[in-house]
Design a protein that fits this description.
Blueprint: H1 2-25, E1 46-54, E2 62-64, E3 70-75, E4 82-83, E5 88-92, H2 95-120, H3 124-157, H4 164-193, H5 197-222, E6 225-227, E7 232-237, E8 244-246, E9 249-251, E10 258-259, E11 262-265, E12 271-278, E13 291-297, E14 303-311, E15 316-317, E16 332-340, E17 353-360
Antiparallel strand pairs: 1-12, 1-17, 2-11, 3-5, 3-8, 4-7, 5-6, 7-11, 8-9, 9-10, 12-16, 13-14, 13-17, 14-16, 15-16
Helix pairs in contact: 2-5, 3-4
């Protein structure tokens, strides 16, 4: 009896195994795709990876770096805001540079004031003092001369009436008075002549040098306010208030690299697509006058015709999106730029990856 039960259980196990094998062997129907993969619309079309960017006559997006290092104390704009040329974007702490500018401004003003003082010479008050000194010296000379004449006249009448010592003192007093008159007369002429031309030229150079230093410091002070170089839209701001930036850019928390402080695009509705053509496909590129392309937005069935703009005639190593140098692959690509107008209701943004097929008209 026991053997019969074991046999029945074995048979049931075998039947269960066969049934399970049959059920699992039946292929299940695949799920329909969310969107159709980008089809090649051309008979000899070339596939390329593309990235959307702002449309410009040359270059890519407008990458703005701080020209001076420092800590950001204020951000004037927001991402997505449309700005005009010269609009302040970011303010960097300029307290030290402001003090330097004020110091050099005072130095330049002092040098200019001294130059004006030299040019204004002779000063009226100084000239009057020098003239009075000449008149006083003349009076002293007359007094000394009168004293000498009297001493000499008395000596001629009676040599015993005047001592030799008194006569010598009178002669020496007259000589001293005459020499003093000569000195103050020359001093008067020097005062009346004004500043020496070489002193004026030297001070002119000093004032010019300090003026240029002040202008240079003022120009550098203006660099602490990062302004929009052209009309456009602020696409990204990679720094916050309190962040440190430098001419190399601002630190990006996610890529751990240095990015532009502000990235702008043009304010036009036209966008560009930069396609990277594999170097082995370059010989298959159609001529420029016959080239056309279509762009497929990933995740949708939307396709947009592209207008050829130019070829950037420089084959370079391909770099992945994070722009990390270690992510270079052993592949070189040729950038080809197209442009397009986003259709109504289609959201397309710079930096978006798209599929592109390039063909011939």
């Amino acid at each position: 009896m026991r053997n019969k039960i074991i046999f029945v259980l074995v048979v049931l196990g075998v039947l269960g195994a066969l049934g399970s094998a049959y059920v699992y062997a039946v292929p299940s129907k695949p799920l329909p795709p969310v969107f159709n993969p980008a089809p090649n619309p051309y008979a000899q079309g070339i596939y390329a990876n593309g990235i959307v960017e702002s449309y410009q006559a040359n270059g890519e997006n407008t990458n703005i770096y701080a020209e001076v290092p420092g800590t950001i104390v204020r951000i004037f704009v927001t991402e997505g805001q449309q700005v005009t040329q010269g609009t302040p974007l970011v303010q960097i702490d300029d307290s030290i540079q402001k003090a330097t500018v004020e110091q050099q401004r005072s130095q330049a003003e002092a040098a200019q004031a001294l130059l004006e003082e030299l040019r204004a010479q002779p000063r009226k008050e100084n000239l009057e003092v020098a003239r009075a000194q000449v008149e006083m010296a003349q009076a002293s000379l007359r007094t000394a001369q009168d004293t000498l004449d009297k001493q000499q006249s008395s000596y001629k009448l009676d040599p015993e009436s005047v001592s030799k010592d008194a006569l010598d003192n009178a002669i020496n007093g007259q000589k001293v008075a005459r020499a003093n008159l000569d000195v103050v007369t020359r001093q008067f002429e020097l005062t009346k002549a004004g500043a020496w031309v070489f002193d004026i030229k030297n001070q002119e150079k000093q004032a010019e040098a300090l003026g240029k230093s002040y202008a240079a410091s003022s120009a550098l002070l203006a660099k602490y306010t990062v302004k929009a170089p052209t009309d456009g839209i602020v696409m990204s701001i990679s720094a916050a208030v309190g962040s440190y930036v430098s001419p190399q850019g601002g630190y990006d928390t996610y890529t751990q690299g240095l990015d532009p402080v502000v990235v702008m695009s043009t304010s036009k509705g036209t966008l560009a697509v930069r396609c990277y053509i594999d170097e082995i496909l370059i010989p298959r590129l159609p001529p420029a006058d016959k080239m056309q392309a279509q762009m497929f937005i990933r995740g949708t069935n939307t396709k947009i015709p592209l207008e050829f703009v130019r070829v950037q005639p420089y084959v370079s190593p391909k770099i992945q999106l994070s722009n990390e140098r270690q992510e270079k692959v052993d592949l070189r690509v040729l950038p080809v730029i197209f442009r397009f107008q986003p259709p109504p209701g289609v959201q397309v943004y710079p930096g978006e990856l798209v599929d592109v097929y390039v063909g011939e008209k």
